[in-house]
Write a structure and sequence with these properties.
Number of domains: 2
CATH class of the largest domain: Alpha Beta
Domain Peptidase M20 dimerisation: 192-349
Strand order of the largest sheet: 1-2-6-3-7-18
Largest sheet: 6 strands, mixed
Pfam families: M20_dimer, Peptidase_M20
Strand content: 15-25%
Keywords: Hydrolase, Metal-binding, Protease
Protein name: Acetylornithine deacetylase/succinyl-diaminopimelate desuccinylase-like protein
């Protein structure tokens, strides 16, 4: 048996595999609104059991985790595959060119909510297990699959689930397929994510809005209070002035710095993608800022009148929302305490709330297992993958690296323009099929690695 038979079988079963994906896509599973979650978990469990994966649903304080496993030898190398079966709400409905829960193929892409994020990639992993078993008869490694139902709502109960099930989830590597491939079209191997702290500041003035002429210079404006506070937090070069903010940041290794230097970068293309034609930086600076440095972002500022025309008032309240992206080894709780202390020192009457957080995570690029997976991805796509030390955004990757202490690698299968979370979300038909093939290659390469370690 050989891996070439994997490709042949995927080609033969293209229609069958697409219909299995379509069946899962048609089942709504909107976690934020608790629509169709139980039905989708049941459907996914049944699909996995039909393949021969021992599957059950495990409860959390929220939506259930669909857990499956094929364990050939408890002492053998174990791969843990993670994904999520929940999706975002489809709104705004009027912007969809076809019904959001009826998979429709146009120009080689499958359009449907969840097609790229994450049902298409999840099913690529599940069908890879079936394909590999049908070609080779058995798996070369143990496989455990963890599919949660709350990722689109913040994975609020994933950490406690992992903490409570450490023995069940014992593994040697965590493998995730989520998000888009590199904007160059090359396959992507991600070794980590930035964390996040989300905070809200509220400043109050008078009990109600006042006339800005009749009470001007008399009643304080809370918007200015927040603006003055912000000036104490950040200098003109963008450096955060909160005491201890940059403590504990793990400096990038020589291997990671070398990776960043060699990553593909097209300034004009990136400028067009983000809608900022004045973007002025080289590739090394771009990737360092995106993956190795924290952010201090104002996500929203609301105060007073913002409608058409004019309304002359002194607002009674001002609210500021910030998302602060964190890098390894910054801790969201530590940063929040420092942020809170800074606010109370400079503006003690401003209210501070923490609205959410996620820890950063990174698997060292020089680990041998990273080389093994990267080689598998290269052999599958016949293209050198882009190896990125960290994603700019945030995923619950820390539950694997921090709680289980495992290396964790993310290999996205969706096309760069998958429009996840947006109307007309999609995944290329070839992206889906290539994802099945890539997972098979990863499984096979890990089997070879396990036999020689």
């Amino acid at each position: 048996m050989s891996l070439s038979q994997i490709s042949n079988l995927i080609d033969e079963r293209k229609t069958q595999y697409l219909e299995q994906l379509f069946k899962l896509l048609r089942q709504k599973s909107i976690s934020a609104q608790n629509i169709g979650i139980a039905e989708c978990a049941d459907l996914l469990q049944g699909m996995m059991e039909e393949i021969g994966i021992s599957t059950r649903q495990l409860p959390t304080k929220g939506h259930p985790v669909v857990y499956g496993e094929i364990v050939r030898d408890p002492e053998a190398f174990t791969l843990l595959i993670y994904g999520h079966y929940d999706v975002q709400p489809p709104d705004p409905l009027e912007e969809w060119l076809s019904p959001p829960f009826e998979p429709t193929i146009r120009d080689g892409k499958i359009y449907c909510r969840g097609a790229g994020d994450n049902k298409g990639q999840l099913m690529a992993q599940v069908l890879a297990v079936k394909t590999y078993l049908d070609v080779f008869g058995e798996l070369p490694v143990n496989i455990k699959l963890v599919f949660e139902g709350e990722e689109e709502s913040g994975s609020n109960h994933l950490a406690s689930f992992v903490e409570e099930n450490k023995e069940l989830l014992k593994a040697d590597l965590v493998y995730t397929s989520d998000g888009p491939m590199h904007d160059s079209g090359a396959p992507l191997v991600l070794l980590g994510v930035r964390g996040m702290l989300y905070v809200e500041l509220t400043a109050k003035g008078a009990e109600w809005d006042n006339h800005s002429g009749n009470k001007g210079n008399i009643v304080p404006n809370p918007a200015w209070k927040l603006i003055d506070l912000l000036r104490t937090m950040r200098d003109e070069n963008g450096r955060v002035l909160i005491e201890g903010f940059y403590d504990n940041i793990r400096q990038p290794s020589e291997v990671e710095l070398e990776l960043i230097k060699n990553l593909p970068f097209d300034r004009e293309q990136v400028a067009k993608q983000v809608g900022y034609k004045d973007l002025d930086m080289d590739g090394e600076t771009y990737y360092r800022k995106l993956t190795m440095e924290p952010t201090f972002n104002i996500a929203g500022f609301n105060s007073g009148y913002g409608g058409e025309g004019s309304k002359t008032i002194i607002p009674s309240k001002a609210t500021l929302k910030m998302d602060i992206r964190l890098v390894v080894d910054q801790d969201p709780d530590d940063i929040y305490e420092k942020f809170y202390a800074h606010v109370k020192k400079h503006a003690p009457d401003v209210e501070v709330k923490q609205l959410g957080q996620m820890k950063p995570s990174r698997t060292p690029a020089d680990q041998e297992i990273v080389k093994v997976v990267t080689e598998a991805v290269y052999e599958s796509y016949n293209q050198v993958p882009v190896l990125l030390p960290s994603l700019g955004g945030s995923l619950p990757d820390y539950v694997w690296t921090k709680i289980l202490g495992l290396p964790s690698i993310v290999v996205p299968y969706a096309n760069f323009d998958e429009a996840n979370h947006s109307p007309n979300e999609n995944i290329g038909v070839n992206n889906f099929l290539d994802g099945i093939k890539c997972t098979c290659h990863v499984i096979h390469k890990l089997g070879e690695y396990a036999n020689h370690r």
